[in-house]
Write a structure and sequence with these properties.
CATH topology of the domain at 107-294 in chain A: MetI-like fold
Oligomer: heterodimer
Radius of gyration of chain A: 25 Å
Number of domains of chain B: 3
CATH architecture of the largest domain in chain B: Roll
CATH superfamily of the largest domain in chain B: Dipeptide-binding Protein, Domain 3
Helix content of chain B: 25-40%
Largest sheet of chain A: none
Distance between the termini of chain A: 7 Å
CATH architecture of the domain at 107-294 in chain A: Orthogonal Bundle
Structural class of chain B: alpha+beta
CATH topology of the largest domain in chain B: Dipeptide-binding Protein, domain 3
CATH class of the domain at 107-294 in chain A: Mainly Alpha
Radius of gyration of chain B: 27 Å
Number of strands of chain B: 25
Largest interface: A-B, 94 and 103 residues
Order of helices and strands of chain A: HHHHHHHHHHHHH
Mean pLDDT of chain B: 93
CATH class of the largest domain in chain B: Alpha Beta
């Protein structure tokens, strides 16, 4: 019963967060200074060789207002938006790619973002924590200092610099990987999958390196403080071997905040990796959001931001449910 | 401890080994296995020596499978305009003259009022699916445009709605078209002007079967150009075109056989990764690479060349120019003396060196100085410019701008061999305004704006701060130009607030009086040939809004409210465009705009199109100028029939 109440309370909170998020998502882009209609007309002007007559521009403007659903008061548009999204999960057509449905554009990009970021986030987390626990547990040894230096070295490097360095070394000079990605249409055969992995390796590697350093340093700090806890000292006095003390006493306890960080990171992957996508010409949702924001494409922004809100809220909700399983100390009693 | 060291070392070693394994297996692209023997293949499975690879003009597209020319948001710049579609009349971008492509001849004028035209179509042109092109396609397209108003978003639908009145099929290859008003520009509205055309003829036999033309994607379309889409990236990074076997029966088959069997448009990422790819010969033609990146690439790869061997290195004949638009109704921009003061405070030589490494061609008139417009406007107005005087008798025109650029570039360390020798005006322009901040101060003082310790003070005692809107990094060249202008004005003593904006906001500021103070812009000066009305026709009273209006302008972005310009434009609209009076009105209009400094025109858009001759040679260059080098204009058709495989 207590568990049911716990879950119900968390679920209600989850729904409230989603609703508030949706509302803010609707109104925020409307405050942006750009206009999707002006942006589209600017594009058409460019395609026309700056040749559009004022009459043609006015007619286009009137048509677009109708087609984009921007007629009527903001309140009416908000109600229609809620109805569409809550009942059908339909964000309407993208303005910049009219009449392509926003859902389709996002669904095209999302698998790439999920595959790349889940893989790189998890690997960076695993590797970083495994290295960090050793660096923290044996913090007074030279080897451990070397591991810490690795983290200190990687962490502050701006992502853009890191990515270009990796491209220069591995793609440009060694020629081991392509400088920019090329993905091909067609069914997912074994060869095509290997090709995707090959073209995704450098983007993933740069993301892993970028996250690796932070995970080393954070786990190291947690390990150093957990190591000093009484129960660890007691285990040492009992004669528990180093390796077992490190894994079962220090690591397991230091891991708890890192799990929180991992789950929340996984929630934010739906923001995409904008710089990665730009540098490597890699598909994903980051560039979609950037383009939508720049062009005032409200519908595409609604779709991408809502996807992120749902992902992060769901991740936080899942964490609330799962965390007590990891840490018996925080299980609520009914 | 030892165990820990061993395990961590093993972990890191395993990670490196996995990386190495992926690199060493270096799988071939699934499509590369189409190659035979030692033929080098592209990633998309075409022989490299038969594939011309072009960096995309537009980066990545979000709806790559949409190839419907009736809707405006498809990836036009991925070759559709040059390779897939055809036009009644194309424009020779080297001469600015129209020539027939799908039409048999230029339009025949059937009445004295220029409202009735006969269009004869070429025989023997076929769509890529083997169906013959004829008048039914033209009729169907015009009918579809009319029925599609309010639903189809291609700009041509809106344009033709207020242009054509009726159309009649005379026979299978002849159509008569009536216009709503006298149409002296018929060939460049229903045909191409610079690079755009309002009329994109679609295949009737394909489109008439569709239930909803607005949602019809037309993926891998039936084309009338010599190429068809072979494949494309569903993620929007590339499109691949293949030459039709029956290219001779296409819209421009009469130009000759295109030499590249495949044309591959690809986005190679941001400029740094693009440059690396270019050095590695992964593509053949770039578009809008910055001068610094070009120079860096050339140092690494001698096969990379620019249009010209000497500065300014690039073809400087783009159809538009960069300038500054101002809200002419907003004080103090409503005063001619203030606008002139800003022009004289702008050190264009420094701006061009700082932003474009000196690779610019200046133009004092409100249009670019090209091989087409120079004899029409710049040459006839040179003596007028030299004699032009401001109210205090000052003569602002500097005919030594070009030689001054040469001297400044030499002083900045450019080798003399890299600079034009002799007359540099064909490179850097015939002249521009003198950089004279002290004259600028005098002009400002004459209207009550005085220089103080921290800027200029208006009559109300407040410091005058100029907000200059510039693009953010979505247009890096204009961004750099904008920052350089702000720097120049700041050095002259002005307080400048440079505001970078995204593309959506940029257009909104451009179109809205309440948001505009000053903006770096290029839309107000796109005059490509004698037809200045394409740029000026919106200069009319109905396109004037109050100074703080939030209403959107549909033209007249320079905000001109001069009655003499209104009268001139109205009069010119009633004249044949090849008449002497029409031409005279054009030069008169230039004088009005210039002497009032309604728009500070600066320089032609510097179109950097470096090429890599590792796989293809005979690109157009200054010493081999069979076409202008633009891959998104009709000139690309000439380029395709002229390039030669290097291997």
């Amino acid at each position: 019963m207590a568990v049911v109440r716990y879950i119900a309370k968390r679920f209600l909170g989850y729904l409230v967060v989603l609703f508030i998020g949706l509302t803010i998502t609707f109104f925020l882009p409307r405050l942006m200074p750009g206009s999707p209609i002006d942006n589209y007309i600017g594009q058409m002007q460019a395609r026309a060789g700056q040749n559009l007559s004022p009459e043609a521009i006015q007619q286009l403007r009137d048509s677009l207002e109708q087609l984009y659903g921007l007629k009527g008061s903001l309140g009416v548009q908000y109600i229609k938006f809620l109805e569409r999204v809550l009942l059908h999960f339909d964000f309407g057509p993208s303005f910049t790619s009219y009449p392509e449905p926003v859902n389709k554009i996002i669904l095209n990009a999302l698998p790439w973002t999920i595959a790349l970021l889940v893989t790189s986030t998890v690997i960076a987390w695993l590797l970083g924590n495994l290295v960090g626990i050793v660096a923290g547990y044996f913090n007074k040894r030279k080897f451990a200092s070397a591991l810490e230096i690795m983290g200190i070295f990687l962490y502050p490097i701006p992502y853009y610099v890191l990515a270009l360095t990796v491209i220069l070394i591995l793609a440009y000079y060694l020629g081991a990987f392509p400088i920019s990605s090329t993905f091909l249409p067609g069914p997912l055969t074994f060869q095509r999958v290997m090709w995707i992995i090959y073209n995704s390796t450098l983007p993933a590697l740069t993301l892993i390196l970028a996250g690796f350093g932070w995970n080393i340093l954070s786990m190291k700090a947690l390990a150093v403080s957990t190591k000093e806890e009484g129960f660890v000292q007691f285990a040492r006095l009992k004669g528990v071997p180093d390796w077992r003390r490190m894994n079962r006493y220090v690591f397991r306890n230091a891991l708890l905040p890192q799990i929180t960080a991992l789950v929340l990171s996984l929630g934010t992957i739906f923001n995409g990796a904008l710089l990665t996508e730009m540098i490597f010409a890699y598909p994903g949702i980051g560039l979609l959001m950037r383009t939508a924001a720049g062009a005032g494409d409200y519908n595409l922004l609604y779709g991408t931001i809502t996807t992120t809100i749902i992902a992060v809220s769901t991740a936080a909700f899942a964490l609330d449910l799962v965390y007590p399983l990891f840490d018996p100390r925080i299980r609520l009693k009914g | 401890m030892a165990v820990a060291i061993r395990k961590v070392s093993a972990l890191l070693t395993a990670a490196v080994l996995v990386l190495g394994l992926v690199a060493c297996t270096a799988p071939k692209s699934p499509d590369q296995s189409n190659g035979t023997g030692n033929t080098e293949m592209t990633d998309v499975g075409t022989p490299r020596n038969q594939t011309l690879i072009v960096q995309t003009f537009d980066g990545k597209t979000d709806n790559p499978d949409n190839m419907n020319p009736l809707m405006g948001s498809y990836a036009l710049w991925r070759g559709f305009r040059e390779l897939g579609w055809g036009y009644l009349w194309e424009m020779d971008t080297a001469t600015g003259k129209s020539y027939p492509e799908l039409a048999a001849d230029l339009p025949k004028v059937m009445d004295a009022s220029y409202t009735k035209f006969q269009v004869s179509l070429k025989k023997g042109i076929y769509w890529s699916d083997g169906v013959q092109f004829n008048a039914d396609d033209l009729m169907y397209t015009l009918d579809t445009y009319k029925a599609g108003q309010g639903k189809l978003t291609y700009f041509g639908v809106s344009t033709l709605a207020s242009y054509v009145k009726s159309w009649t099929k005379v026979d299978d290859y002849t159509v008569e078209i009536d216009t709503q008003n006298p149409a002296y520009d018929f060939a460049t509205v229903l045909g191409v002007y610079t690079w755009g055309s309002a009329l994109n003829i679609v295949p009737k036999h394909v489109f008439e079967k569709q239930a909803d033309l607005a949602t019809f994607k037309n993926t891998t379309p039936v084309t009338i150009g010599p190429y068809t889409i072979k494949s494309f990236d569903p993620n929007g990074q590339w499109h691949l075109w293949q030459l039709r076997d029956d290219w001779q029966r296409s819209a421009w088959g009469d130009l000759g056989q295109p030499q590249a069997k495949y044309v591959y448009y690809k986005n190679f990422g941001d400029e740094q990764t693009r440059t690396l790819s270019f050095i590695k010969n992964q593509y053949d033609v770039d578009t809008f690479m910055s001068p610094d990146s070009i120079a860096a690439a050339q140092k690494q790869n001698k096969a990379i060349t620019t249009f010209a061997k000497t500065s300014p290195y690039n073809d400087m004949n783009d159809a538009c120019s960069y300038g500054v638009i101002m809200n002419l109704a907003k004080a103090p921009f409503d005063k001619k003396e203030v606008r002139w003061a800003l022009a004289l405070s702008l050190d264009l030589a420094s701006v061009s060196i700082n932003s474009m490494s000196g690779q610019v061609k200046a133009g004092a008139l409100a249009l670019p100085d090209t091989q087409i417009t120079r004899p029409l406007f710049y040459d006839p107005l040179q003596s007028w410019l030299k004699d032009l005087q401001l109210p205090d008798g000052y003569q602002p025109y500097d005919t030594n701008f070009a030689s001054g650029m040469v001297d400044k570039l030499k002083a900045a360390g450019t080798d003399a061999s890299a600079l034009p020798s002799g007359d540099a005006t064909s490179s850097y322009g015939l002249g521009w305004w003198k950089n004279d901040p002290s004259e600028a101060q005098k002009l400002l003082a004459s209207v009550g704006i005085t220089k103080g310790a921290d800027g200029f003070y208006q009559q109300n005692g407040k410091t005058w701060e100029i907000e200059l809107v510039i693009p953010s990094d979505w247009n890096k060249v204009m961004q750099r130009v904008g920052f350089s202008i702000a720097d120049s004005w700041t050095k002259a003593g002005f307080k400048v607030n440079t505001r970078q904006v995204d593309n959506g906001e940029f257009t909104k500021v451009q179109n809205t009086n309440s948001l505009l103070t000053a903006e770096v812009n290029w839309s107000s000066s796109c005059i490509f040939n004698a037809n200045y009305l394409n740029s000026w026709r919106s200069i009319m009273p109905s396109n004037v809004q109050p100074v703080d209006s939030t209403a959107t302008l549909n033209g007249n972005l320079a905000r001109i409210t001069d009655q003499s310009m209104f009268d001139l434009v109205a009069k010119a609209g009633k004249l044949p465009q090849d008449s002497a009076e029409f031409k005279t009105l054009g030069t008169d209009g230039m004088k009005i705009i210039t002497e009032n400094m309604y728009y500070i025109n600066m320089m032609n858009i510097s179109t950097t199109i470096p090429t890599n001759t590792t796989y293809w040679t005979n690109f157009p260059k200054q010493d081999n100028a069979y076409a202008v080098p633009y891959t998104w204009w009709s000139s690309f058709k000439k380029i395709l029939v002229s390039v030669k495989p290097a291997k």
